[in-house]
Each structure stands twice: as structure tokens, then as C-alpha cells.
């Protein structure tokens, strides 16, 4: 496992990454470009019909094998050295103090902190020594695993810092061929619990409505996190500390 060293306290919000696979592409290739947003809205609407209560998440068994493979192999991927704050949905992360106050609010990623593992880190650049845009198209086989922990206020910092709580879930997205049925342009989303069981995979409205807005092949890049860099307390490393400290800017 290669450890990637951030050099500034930016916060990644991925893959954020919760769960979902997409419906098939529109049959007509003559649909006007101006209707692209309408097409996406229709796709998201069809996702919502799979989850009318807003609580029960679909679990498509066709993708269990690929998600469990990512779960088993993620420690061999490159990983961010510092813990990152995961905000609600996949928007740019808020300042840490705001995250403390909203730690128990709604949203799939609210009140969580995570490590991000990338199978192909050259395509998904999580290093912060330079601000690099994600490649517009990720390679087939690319996999991102977000190992999420619940957050809790640190008594030493009187609530202005965050400590680690229990392991929450593994949020995974992996890319298959773009024409694979039941995927979001090839992307498969899923959630695996700490016991190694796939608890959700398939079409989830919250996931789709966020990742479909990305201009970098469904992934959220470093530049989206930069505006929220101010007023961030020190991150908490949980992976084995390397022999040399991270470089500084």
C-alpha cells in the first residue's frame, strides 16, 4: 500500500461515494444536446421510483462480486495519509466546527470522517502537493473505496476538533464498461458494512443526483474541495505512521 501525503488541509468529498447504478441510456441518438439535463433528470426520477419511501436502499446482487472484491483488496490500493471530513452528500466540505455541529444531521455522509483508497491513483489524484484536475475519463477498473468513521467532538478541543468514533461503512464505486446494463455510465455504487456484507447497491437518488453533476467522469475532484480549506482543525491519521513526515508547503 502506497501512502499519499497531503501538503495542505484540503478536504476531499467523494465518493463520496454512496451507492447506485444507473438506468440504460436513451435509445435515440438524435436527442438534442440541449435536452441533456432533462435526460439526467429523467434518470434521477427513475431512481427515485426504486425507493419511494426514501429509506429502503436497493441491493442489486449482480454487482455484489465486484463490490466485495474492492472491499477485500482496498488495502492494496493507494491511500490518503490523513483523515478527511465527509460532508452531506458530495458537496464541498464545510469548516470543521460546522461539521461538529452537524455531526448527527441527515445525509449519507454527514457526520463522518474517512480515508480514501484509489486503485489507480494516477488517474484519481488524491495528492495535495499540487492541485491536479481529475482526468475527464477514468479507466475501466478504476475503484474508489471510502472507509468511513463516525465523528465525535474532542473534549480536549472543547468541541472545536473531531475525534474518531466507530467504523461506519465502506462506500465503494467501481467502473465497468460504460455500456454495462444497470450502471451509471459504467459506474457501480455500493455499501459494504464492517462485517463484509453488501448492504446496498443499485439505483439511489442521493448518489445519482450528486455524482451525475461531476464533469470528471462521476468523481469529485480536488478543486471542488479547495474553497472549504479555511478554518480546518488538524486531521487525524489512523493508518500506520510512515518513517518520514508528510512534506509541507
Please outline the helices and strands.
Layout: E1 3-4, H1 36-49, H2 64-73, E2 78-80, E3 84-86, H3 96-101, E4 112-118, E5 143-153, E6 162-175, E7 187-192, E8 198-201, H4 205-211, H5 222-225
Parallel strand pairs: 1-2
Antiparallel strand pairs: 2-4, 3-4, 4-5, 5-6, 6-7, 7-8
Key terms:
249 residues; disordered C terminus; 5 helices; alpha+beta
Structure commentary:
With 249 residues, the protein is an alpha+beta fold. The protein has one domain. It contains five helices and eight strands, in the order βααββαβββββαα. Strands 1, 2, 3, 4, 5, 6, 7 and 8 form an eight-stranded mixed beta sheet that branches. The longest helix has 14 residues, at 36-49. The radius of gyration is 18 Å and the shape is globular. The two termini are 24 Å apart. Mean pLDDT is 62; it is low at 5-53, 87-107 and 222-249.
Q: What's the shape?
A: globular
Roughly what percent helix?
10-25%
Number of strands: 8
Radius of gyration: 18 Å
Report the sheet-strand fraction: 15-25%
Q: Which parts are unreliable, with pLDDT below 50 for 5 consecutive residues or more?
A: 5-53, 87-107, 222-249
Can you give the mean pLDDT?
Answer: 62
Biggest beta sheet attributes? 8 strands, mixed
How many domains in all? 1
Order of helices and strands: EHHEEHEEEEEHH
The number of helical elements comes to 5
* Spatial gap, N to C terminus: 24 Å
Amino acid at each position: 500500500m502506497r501512502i499519499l501525503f497531503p501538503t495542505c488541509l484540503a478536504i476531499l468529498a467523494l465518493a463520496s461515494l454512496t451507492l447506485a447504478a444507473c438506468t440504460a441510456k436513451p435509445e435515440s441518438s438524435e436527442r438534442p444536446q440541449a435536452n441533456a439535463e432533462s435526460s439526467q433528470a429523467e434518470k434521477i426520477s427513475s431512481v427515485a421510483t426504486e425507493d419511494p419511501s426514501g429509506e429502503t436502499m436497493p441491493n442489486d446482487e449482480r454487482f455484489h462480486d465486484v463490490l466485495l472484491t474492492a472491499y477485500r483488496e482496498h488495502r492494496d490500493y493507494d491511500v490518503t495519509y490523513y483523515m478527511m471530513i465527509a460532508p452531506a452528500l458530495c458537496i464541498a466540505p464545510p469548516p470543521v466546527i460546522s461539521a461538529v455541529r452537524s455531526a448527527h444531521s441527515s445525509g449519507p455522509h454527514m457526520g463522518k470522517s474517512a480515508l480514501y483508497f484509489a486503485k489507480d491513483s494516477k488517474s484519481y489524484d488524491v495528492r495535495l502537493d499540487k492541485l491536479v484536475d481529475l482526468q475527464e475519463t477514468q479507466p475501466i477498473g478504476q475503484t474508489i473505496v471510502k472507509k468511513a468513521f463516525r465523528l465525535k467532538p474532542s473534549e480536549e478541543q472543547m468541541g472545536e476538533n473531531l475525534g474518531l468514533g466507530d467504523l461506519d461503512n465502506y462506500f465503494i464505486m467501481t467502473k465497468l464498461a460504460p455500456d454495462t446494463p444497470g450502471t451509471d455510465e459504467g459506474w457501480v455504487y455500493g455499501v459494504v458494512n464492517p462485517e463484509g456484507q453488501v448492504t446496498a447497491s443499485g439505483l439511489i437518488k442521493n448518489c445519482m443526483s450528486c455524482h451525475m453533476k461531476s464533469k470528471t467522469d462521476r468523481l469529485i475532484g480536488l478543486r471542488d474541495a479547495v474553497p472549504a480549506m479555511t478554518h480546518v482543525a488538524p486531521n487525524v491519521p489512523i493508518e500506520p505512521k510512515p518513517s518520514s513526515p508528510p512534506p509541507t508547503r
